[in-house]
Write a structure and sequence with these properties.
- Helices cover 52% and strands 14% of the residues.
- By secondary structure, it is an alpha/beta fold.
- It is elongated, with a radius of gyration of 26 Å.
- It has ten helices and seven strands.
- The structure holds uridine-5'-diphosphate and magnesium ion.
- The site of uridine-5'-diphosphate has 16 residues, from strand 1 and helix 3.
- The site of magnesium ion has 5 residues, from loops.
């Protein structure tokens, strides 16, 4: 499928206390959009949508000024700081109303803005989602690089379909965003949801740069809670681990039972020792197993309450 129609692009940028980089980011994004418009790759009605995520500094004021000066800029301001993922979702859902293509990007220009051209090309040749993937992480600190990469690997191990080294620099079509709306979950971890939506997707590689100015808005505490959210919102494998551990301890208790009885029969024990040792292992095993079993049901409740769509139709010949 080759798309030829004029496409309205919205570039969605979540901002939390980004006054130091915002003007520069705005300038760069404007240049990018203007060049794409000049090449008639996107519609002249394309815009840059800033999401002010309850910033305490001049971020919103800057966004307002930008939009007054040039109609290519627009923005929404959230009532309070709700975190990157929620801000992003608010931006995507707003952009969806006006745009055919939406690209999300961080405010600090760590993602390579020049990768947008290639994303649009891939969209034009039929991809509904285009993931921006970091080819290298040289600019990241050792700590950030190692923890981030282990996180992606661990998520894969837990059976979560997640694109390795892809953050939230991503193109999605209007159709994909409409499907995203059907996901009823409250703890959103967008990187995990997009692969669940499916459709034809593609990847664009880029080198991750250093933050232009200002400090990271993801201190270690937020990073950890983000990773934890990702794991617990997408996998029930940790519950299975408890169940498996229970089974393991139970099996061990059988071996211990045989061993202690043998020792007792050989008459080398103190009175009561056999009984206590067997009880401890058996009870521990049964308890761990029971917790895991209850966990299985909680896992089921968890999947039910997420209310995720059970299927998404790509093409329907009845409608043609
Ligand atoms: N951000 C946000 N709300 C928050 C934290 C971050 O909207 O509560 C935005 C931030 O302004 C930036 C993006 O999320 O545009 C990514 O944050 P940052 O660059 O600080 O994260 P890092 O690249 O260090 O992981
Ligand atoms: Mg950043």
């Amino acid at each position: 499928m080759i798309r030829t129609e004029k496409n309205i692009l919205y570039l969605v940028i979540p901002c939390f206390n980004e006054e130091e980089v915002l003007t520069f980011t705005a300038e760069k994004s404007k240049e990018k959009l203007c060049s794409l418009i000049a090449l008639s790759k996107i519609s002249p009605n394309s815009k840059i949508l800033f999401v002010n995520d309850g910033s305490k500094d001049k971020t919103w004021q800057i966004i307002r000024e930008l939009s007054e000066k040039n109609s290519i800029f627009t923005g929404i301001s959230l009532s309070k700081n709700g975190g990157h993922q929620n801000a992003l979702l608010a931006g995507l859902m707003t952009a969806k109303k006006y745009a055919d293509i939406v690209i999300s990007m961080d405010a600090d220009l760590q993602d390579d803005i020049n990768a947008i051209d290639e994303m649009i090309d891939k969209y034009k040749s039929g991809a509904e989602i285009v993931y921006g993937v970091r080819a290298s992480r040289k600019s990241d600190s050792w700590f950030k690089r190692t923890t981030a990469q282990s996180f992606y690997k661990f998520m894969r191990y837990l059976g979560v379909d997640i694109v390795y080294n892809h953050a939230d620099f991503r193109l999605s079509s209007k159709r994909v965003l409409e499907k995203l709306e059907d996901f009823g979950e409250v703890n959103i971890f967008l990187r995990g949801i997009f692969p669940l939506i499916g459709f034809k997707s593609d990847i664009v590689y880029y080198d991750r740069k250093e933050r232009l100015a200002g400090k990271t808005k993801y201190p270690k505490r937020k990073m950890l809670s983000f990773a934890w959210d990702g794991i617990t919102s997408f996998s029930i494998k940790p519950i299975r681990m408890i169940l498996n551990l229970g089974i393991l301890i139970f099996l061990a208790s059988v071996i211990i039972m045989i061993y202690t009885l043998a020792v007792k029969l050989l008459g080398k024990t103190v009175d009561g020792w056999t009984f206590i040792v067997i009880s401890i292992w058996l009870i521990a095993g049964i308890q761990m197993f029971s917790i895991g079993l209850i966990g299985e049901y909680i896992g089921k409740i968890y999947s039910e309450t997420k209310n995720r769509p059970k299927y998404i139709i790509d093409e329907d010949l009845n409608e043609e």
